[in-house]
Each structure stands twice: as structure tokens, then as C-alpha cells.
Specification:
Distance between the termini: 51 Å
Strand order of the largest sheet: 1-2-7-6-11-5-4
Shape: elongated
Low-confidence stretches: 1-24, 26-51
Strand content: 15-25%
CATH class of the largest domain: Mainly Beta
Largest sheet: 7 strands, mixed, barrel
CATH architecture of the largest domain: Ribbon
Oligomer: single chain
Length: 272
């Protein structure tokens, strides 16, 4: 079995439906996420906005126009609230000037949003302080079992500290219900002594077994070579299993907001 989760695996990206996926693999990555980063900037109507920036090196896109129009506010309305002109807001929306965190905070107050959402974009070079997009690829059950592809396809806002290629699992039960378990598919690796040392006493890895079942549990070595126990504080342990791959957890986060899709940003953000 390939060590990688299949997130960027050529075999997985050729699969056309969930039933055809091998056990434990992630759903095929959407084409717009696998495309060359430069080509993403040239896709759809929003590419016109990118080319229209009057700066030689345009700033990253933002969501000001999208949320302003969704709130039913004009350029003048937003400018009046924060004490600037209509033209100032227009320049920010058209990326004719850079958006700093202070200005994003002011606009966010006017629109009822945090600055991290105001500065968000799907571009490969977003503002360093803006939210990161987390694709929710599955869920964690009450028994700590992970199911890929069962959660609604959505992107949520994660902190700017998260790696760009992070994905999330929706925790569905217990005190952490509604929080997201975050990991990087590209960090998957074979089970090893190093994994045991790095996990410490916490559940710091997800583990996919040879049979395809995937769990979020603490891993301990079994008496038989190449076998492991999966332990839980609140569930019965799973004994003597073979582990196909593990992936380190990079965070457990409370999602800030559901993010608009690229299509939504194009539809409401393509013109003033």
C-alpha cells in the first residue's frame, strides 16, 4: 500500500466516485486545488480584477467586495463608517493598494467580521495575517474512528499559523464537538519507532490500519513485531493491529467561519 494518504496520489485523483476509493484514502482532491498555483490566479472572471490592478505587483485578493455586497452596503457606506473616502475602499477592493491588518480590522468592524476573514483569498500568495482555508475532508466519531468523505464539502477559516496544505476532520461527539482535527496529508509516513517517540503521551497521530480503518488514538507497541495497540481514555483498546501509515496532527482548532467558495467570490466580487 502506498505510504501517502492518496491526497496527491495519481491513482486516487483518477477515481471518479467514493465507492471506487481504496479503504482509508482521502476523496479525490478537487481540480482547482491541484492546479498549478499560477493557473489558479487566471481562472474565472476574477482574473480580470487581478489583471486590472494598477500596481506592477498586485497585492493578494481580499473579500471586502464580497462581504460588502452581501451586507447590502455601498462603497460610501463602508467608507463613512471607518472615516475614509469611497475611493479608498474601491482601491482596496480592486487591489490598487495594499491592505494592512489595521485597515482590515476597521473594515471588519463595519461588516461584522474579523480581519482574518477580510484579508482571506484562495491565491497562493495570501496576506500572511489572513485566515487559511481548511478543506473539511471527513469526520471523527465518538469512538475516535475517522471516516473520509462523509462530511459536507466545505472550506472553513483556520488560523494563519497553519501550513498551507492542511486539511481538517470534523469532531462530531464529546466536549470537542464542532472543533476540527487538522493534519497534513503530505506528512503521512510509515509507522516507526520514531513515531512512537514523537507522539509522547498524547494522541498526536492518526493511524490507518492495513484493513483501511483509520483512528485517532494513542499508539503503543504490541508484543508481536510489527503490531500495535490503539489506546483511548474513554473507549476499549484495539489490540494487535498492523498500521499502514500515520499522519501527525498539526492542530485542533475552533473554525472561525465557513468560507465562501471561489464561485461565490467570483459571482459577487467580479464587479463593484
Amino acid at each position: 500500500m502506498d505510504v501517502r494518504l492518496g491526497f496527491y496520489n495519481e491513482k486516487v485523483t483518477r477515481l471518479v466516485n467514493a465507492d471506487a476509493r481504496p479503504p482509508g484514502s482521502l476523496p479525490p482532491i478537487p481540480h482547482d486545488l491541484t492546479a498549478n498555483p499560477k493557473s489558479r490566479l487566471n481562472a474565472g472572471r476574477r482574473s480580470q480584477r487581478i489583471k486590472e490592478s494598477r500596481l506592477n505587483q498586485a497585492p493578494p485578493p481580499n473579500t471586502i467586495r464580497f462581504y460588502r455586497r452581501r451586507a447590502g452596503m455601498s462603497l460610501e457606506d463602508v467608507g463613512k463608517i471607518i472615516g475614509v473616502s469611497r475611493e479608498t475602499i474601491r482601491k482596496l477592493e480592486d487591489r490598487d493598494t495594499w491592505l494592512d491588518p489595521e485597515r482590515a480590522t476597521e473594515i471588519g468592524h463595519a461588516l461584522g467580521l474579523p480581519k482574518e476573514i477580510i484579508g482571506f483569498s484562495y491565491a497562493p500568495n495570501p496576506y500572511s495575517w489572513a485566515a487559511r482555508s481548511l478543506w473539511v475532508v471527513g469526520s471523527v466519531s465518538a469512538q475516535d474512528e475517522i471516516t473520509f468523505g462523509d462530511a459536507p464539502h466545505r472550506h472553513v477559516a483556520g488560523g494563519s499559523h497553519l501550513p498551507e496544505d492542511s486539511v481538517a476532520l470534523d469532531i462530531q461527539q464529546g466536549k470537542m464537538r464542532g472543533w476540527l482535527l487538522v493534519f497534513r496529508p503530505e506528512s503521512s509516513e510509515r509507522m516507526s519507532k520514531s513515531v512512537l517517540e514523537r507522539q509522547g503521551l498524547q494522541e498526536n497521530f492518526i493511524a490507518c490500519l492495513d484493513d483501511g480503518a483509520t483512528w485517532w488514538r494513542h499508539i503503543s507497541p504490541a508484543a508481536r513485531q510489527g503490531r500495535y495497540h490503539l489506546n483511548s481514555r474513554h473507549q476499549d483498546p484495539i489490540h494487535d493491529v498492523r498500521i499502514a501509515w500515520v499522519a501527525k496532527i498539526v492542530g485542533i482548532v475552533d473554525p472561525l467561519f465557513d468560507l465562501p467558495t471561489r464561485e461565490q467570490l467570483d459571482e459577487l466580487g467580479a464587479s463593484p
